[in-house]
Amino acid sequence: MFNTILFPIDRSREAREAAETVANLVKTYNSRLVLLSVVENTPESKMDSEAEVAKLLQAAQALFAEKGIETEVIEREGMASFTICDVADEIDANLIIMGCRGLGLTNEGATESVTIRVINLSPCPVLIVP
Question: Which PANTHER family does UniProt cross-reference here (predicted)?
Answer without folding.
Answer: STRESS RESPONSE PROTEIN NHAX (PTHR46268), UNIVERSAL STRESS PROTEIN UP12 (PTHR46268:SF6)
